[in-house]
Structure formats: structure tokens, C-alpha cells
């Protein structure tokens, strides 16, 4: 039977929700891109409801059109919490190391905390690997995406001599679709020949793996994975962190960390929506997990 988060939080803090209302007037959760805005809002509404219950203030959800909207919201103080990709977190850290703290990381069903950038094409295209993508249209998601740009831009050129990220050199054209869902739909519709998105790489291909953008697209009825084929997979990437603004009151930060950490135990369906598929929930994480991603981001993008 589903527990209320208020009961779960009572075991970890003795502060009442009224105490929070004296310090903050609302709590704002940013939702990184990956699917259309309404679907993102629907997936997070349960978390917003639990947050309102736990803090005693209104909770507002923000689903900007691109990753930079969440990044700038956290930097500017108009967003209080978000689950970021590792590259988006690195961008914030490089611009202001004191803006946010990484507090939690998603855990896969096998206990690991990584995922992959997945290259894919239509199954009927004759494309089975990056070797078949020469002269064809290749799509990235968002420039601030780890799996949708940063890691592929580093690892794909290592796959084969002559591959670059410039249009007209190896790929006939390199384009940004705007997000993971857009890339998946563009490939499925034949608008582009191949692209990259993210998945934990566990479970079955026909399900869109256990979690990630492909799983969300399958759940939404946007794609039949039997119509797609995997053509490339990156090395393991550390899952991005749930972050909280450092300027938030300490009791608010503690309560929200506990709430999200206990979300899977208390409401697995809510955790499924927030975590983009099947997981074991979230566990603590620190900045040390992302030092290599920060270095990679600085080298490739700058900030």
C-alpha cells in the first residue's frame, strides 16, 4: 500500500511543514527536456504533490523548451531543484560552483548508476553501424545534453578515422533536433537517417531498454522498437544528478533530498515517471562523480 511522504519524512525530521512556509513561499522544480512539455509535467505532477505536502508551500513545475532553460533557472535562482544530465550539471558548475549541490543519482535495476548514449536508425534503412552513415543525416538532441551531444561528439570520432561532427565531412549533415524525443521521432519518421539518445542499456531492446528516452517513447506509443536498430553505443556515462540550489534553507534541502531518496519505496509508479522507467530509485552522490564530465565539457564546449 502506498505510504504518504509526510509519514516517511517524519522519521527523518522533526520540523513541521509550517516551519518551511516561513522560510520559502514556493518551491520550483525544473524538468530537463527529453519529451514534450505536457508529458514531462504529467510525469512529475506526483512529485510536485508530494513536495507541497512535505514543505507546506505551493510547488510549481517548469518544463523549458531546451536544457539551457533549466540551467539558467538554477543559476538565476528561479528554479530550486532539477534532475540534470551530467553535462548540464557540468555547465552550471563551470559557470558558478556555488549555485547547486548534486545530492542524488538514479540507480539501475542491477544497482549500477550509469547509462549509455545510443546511436540508432530505422531497421529498414540498411544502416547497421556508423560505417553505413557516411554521407547521411545524423541528429543530435540538445547541445547541453550529455548523451545527446557531449559524449557522442567525443567518442564517435574515435570510432573511425575521418568521422567528424561537421556537416559535409563524414556525415552528409549534422543537425540538432531539439531533444531526445524529437530525435527518436525524426529517425522513426525517416526525417533523418540516424541519431543518438539515452538509455540504461539494460533489459530488452523491444521495450526501449529498462529506462531512458527510448523507454519513454515506447510508453507514449511514439515508436515501435522493432522498427529501429541500434548502430552504436557509448561507454558507460555516469547518471546525472538531482541537484538543489545551495541557497535554499538547510531544512528544505534535507527534506527534499529525503523525499526523492524515498520516492521509489513509497510510490514506485511516481518514481517510474520521474526516473524515465524502471529503477531502484535514487541514492546519494557527490561532485566527485562528475569531475571527468566537467573536464570533458570544458574541453569541448567551454562552459
Automatic annotation (TrEMBL):
Residues 1-21 form the signal peptide. SUPFAM superfamilies: Periplasmic binding protein-like II. Keywords: Signal. The keyword Ubl conjugation does not apply. Transmembrane segments: none annotated. Belongs to the phosphate/phosphite/phosphonate binding protein family. This is Phosphonate ABC transporter substrate-binding protein.
